[in-house]
Amino acid sequence: MNIAIFASGNGSNFQAIAGAVKKGKIKAKLALLVCDKPGAHVLKRAKKLKVEAFLIEKKNFQSKEEYEKAIVRKLKEKNIGLIALAGYMKIVGPDILKAYKNKILNIHPALLPSFKGASGIKDALAYGVKVTGPTVHFVDEGMDTGVIIMQSEVSISDKDNEKSLAKKIHRAEHKIYPEVVKLFVEGKLKIKGRKVYVR
Ligand code: GRF
Predict the structure, then answer these.
(1) By the 8 A CB rule, do 46 and 54 touch?
(2) I need a labelling partner for 105 at 20 to 30 A (CA). Which of 4, 8, 148, 168 fits?
(3) What is the pLDDT along the chain (199 residues), one digit of tens a residue?
(4) What does the entry list as the binding residues for (6R)-10-formyltetrahydrofolate (predicted)?
(5) Distance of CA 136 from the midpoint of ligand 1 (Å)
(6) Residue 60 burial (CB < 10 Å; 0-12/13-18/19+)?
(7) Please, what are the domains in the chain?
């Protein structure tokens, strides 16, 4: 199976998945990085790891539809069977969703359905919860609403600030995201209603 990762920023999850592929833990090819931000650090990581990068900026298209159609063309050309969003800062629209139904994963840095949106780490800290952590889920048309595949608990101590908490959450992300990608590639994720079973 060929995998594409979509990212807009740092790319530590890209790196974690690439590492698991390299080690043979995930038996698939990381065939493409789709990046919408020139200058994103993830592009450097892809270069180093010799993963093809497809840099595509929405501003160069007349509409989001045209932008996504161009992405789908590239995904088809590369025979992509799984998309993993990893810090991709755009809502995935109907063209990609239709072409890859139940084949798009995302990682969110809070225990969904709590703290949806772009600042899940900060919001959990400000709210005062004692436990937070990443969620890997399938992507649907909503924002962070798709069925949940795996979550990992991270406890928040009185000493934590946004930086220290982010560090703990990222560490947990780098464990569960490659694990979920592996399960998907092995065909072990079964969706029933809102539940995902590992079989
Ligand atoms: C992660 O915290 C992920 O949960 C969120 O975006 C961040 C991406 O980090 N969706 P990185 O670019 O993989 O380092």
Answers:
(1) no
(2) 168
(3) 999 999 999 999 999 999 999 999 999 999 999 999 999 999 999 999 999 999 999 999 999 999 999 999 999 999 999 999 999 999 999 999 999 999 999 999 999 999 999 999 999 999 999 999 999 999 999 999 999 999 999 999 999 999 999 999 999 999 999 999 999 999 999 999 999 999 9
(4) 64, 89-92, 106
(5) 11
(6) exposed
(7) 2-198 (3.40.50.170)
Cα–Cα distance, 60 to 66 (Å, whole number): 10
Q: Which residues contact 156 (CB under 8 A, 6 or more apart)?
A: 124, 125, 129, 130, 131, 132, 165
Of 150, 170, 177, best ligand 1 pocket probe by most atoms within 8 Å of the beta carbon = 170
Q: CA 105 to CA 133: how far, in whole Å?
A: 17
User: Known catalytic residue: 108?
Assistant: yes
* Beta carbon of 152 within 6 Å of any ligand 1 atom: no
Q: How far is the CA of 59 from the centre of ligand 1 (A)?
A: 23
Is 101 annotated to bind a ligand? Reply is no
Instruction: Answer whether 9 contacts ligand 1 (Cβ < 6 A).
Output: yes
